Amino acid sequence: MSAEAECPECAAVIELDDDVVEGEIVTCTECGMELEVVPGNPWSLTPAPEEEEDWGE
Amino acid sequence: MPEPLSAAIVGGSGYVGGELLRLLLAHPHVTVLQITSESQTGRPVHTVHPNLRSVTDLKFSQEGSLDAVDILFLALPHGSAAGRMDHFDGLAQRIIDCSADFRLRDAGVYAQWYGHAHPDPDRLPRFVYGLPERHRSELTGATHASGVGCNASATILALGPLADEGLLERVVADIKVGSSEAGSRPSESSHHPERSGVIRSFMPTGHRHQAEVVQTLGTGFDLSFSVTSVGLVRGVLVTAHCFLRAAVTEKDLWALYRNHYGSEPFIRLVNQRRGIHRYPEPRLTTGSNFCDVGFVVDQGSRHRRVVVLAALDNLVKGAAGSAVQSMNLMIGCDEVAGLGFPGLHPL
User: Fold this and answer.
1) How does pLDDT run across B158-210, given as a tens digit for each residue?
2) Strand (E) positions, B75-184?
3) Which domains does chain A have, with CATH numbers?
4) Beta-carbon separation of B273 and A33 below 8 A
5) What is the pTM of this model?
6) CATH (residue range B5-127)
7) Nearest-CA distance from B276 to chain A in Å?
8) Fold entry, domain B150-314
């Protein structure tokens, strides 16, 4: 059975693949946040480092 | 349910009539037998709705030649149907009136907003307000439904979860709308040199759709409602500045909106952390029955100001699409039947 973890941004439940590995980047299907997989029991997620977007505004 | 059910559209030469026909021609349980237009009688419908060329052989007929059908859609100008409901009731057991004539349940409120007494006030309670997200159980099996105001629909769907939880103290709803909201009849204000590229304050106060919002969400909060015409053909975008009775976090809002809308087939929560389509955009709903809803907490307001956004296609989710969705509930078929078009990108 695949593991689940909660998005720290929007609290969506995210299913992790069976072969998920430490440091893998997953995207929350609801808020689009990119998240880094943190090993543990259970697995958890933390916001992945991101580059600032240039909106030119 | 005998299949297919027969339907007719009265007032089919307008934009809402055209969208009703487009949706119903692809509906698995309904066949449109007649579509009327007094000004276009005898002409093929594709001469007015060119997107339907080769899709249907229907021609516009006169209202006087209507036969009895299972479902009658009224897409007439406001004020045109209200005085003739005995006639229409004689033609069909189920009626959906897309005009504003039967949206408000209280004749006094109708008179206040429309400036004249309702011609048939005793019939008002018979019509269910045709927004399934708020009236699903009443619409199920109903015989009469009203249409919905497009600006009202977007605002109701944006604010509904916060209003239901009693969180709203005051709301300033800024609504930007496309030109098709004004209908297919040209006017001085719709003349291309006057309309193209505008950002024109249309109704800073006093827009009639405000009455539908108050009727649906109640009087528990103060609502300011301003409508601005912008250079779109289709689309409504509501930017609702909500001043709350209690502080909330964005996670609270995710939980609240998921709880209210998680099983709604035509509401999508749009609050993306990345990319250019982070919040609801009207263009992405074009032709579809979706209403996209998003929200942001103003971190500088001690978490007591929230901006809620909602976008929809005024001719679909704001008119013909909600009418077909309501019809699906009325006839007991799958609520999403005939409404699967997901919109276009890019557009």
Assistant:
1) 999 999 999 999 999 999 999 988 888 888 888 889 888 889 998 999 999 99
2) 92-97, 144-146, 168-177
3) 3-47 (2.20.28.160)
4) yes
5) 0.95
6) 3.40.50.720
7) 9
8) Dihydrodipicolinate Reductase; domain 2 (3.30.360)
User: What is the C-alpha to C-alpha distance for residues B25 and B46, in angstroms, rounded to an integer?
Assistant: 13
The CA distance from B287 to B342, in Å, is 8
ipTM of this complex prediction, to 2 decimal places: 0.82
In whole angstroms, how far apart are CA B343 and each of B72, B126, B266, B289?
27, 34, 12, 8
Counting beta carbons within 10 angstroms of the beta carbon of residue B108, is it exposed (0 to 12), middle (13 to 18) or buried (19 or more)? exposed
Contact A11 B255 (CB under 8 A): yes
Domain boundaries, given as residue ranges, for chain B: 5-127, 150-314
Chain B touched by A25 (CB under 8 Å): no
Among candidate residues B170, B172, B176, B123, the one with its CA nearest the CA of residue B150? B176
> Given strand B69-74, what is the order of strands in its sheet?
B60-61, B30-36, B5-10, B69-74, B92-97, B144-146
- Please say if B291 is a catalytic residue: no
